């Protein structure tokens, strides 16, 4: 696959070896960030920031994506003018086997229990 990321606009990400469990759990402890991760997991593809319907200001949305990126939960790359987001499933599953699937399943069960839309 050819990398079509926009040169010169690279965002900092932790290397796989630098991803810490406590940072991942912190990132996923926020309902907005967990919702973003649930959407990315369901899509199994890159999604642009504008795809997500988060009921907060743009600056707060940017903060949520930065926390997810800096914790190692997602990878963000610019493709043209769009900032694309992908779940770092391989890294997370390699470091913490079963954690992501367990958290996503628990979030799904909670959503059903509480009658949330997703």
From TrEMBL:
Keywords: DNA-binding, Transcription, Transcription regulation. PROSITE patterns: HTH_ARSR_2. Signal peptide: none annotated. This is ArsR family transcriptional regulator. InterPro entries: ArsR-like_HTH, HTH_ArsR_DNA-bd_dom, HTH_MetalResp_TranReg, WH-like_DNA-bd_sf, WH_DNA-bd_sf. Residues 13-107 form the HTH arsR-type domain. GO terms for molecular function: DNA binding; DNA-binding transcription factor activity. It comes from Streptomyces yokosukanensis. The keyword Nucleus does not apply. It holds the Pfam family HTH_20. The keyword Heme does not apply.
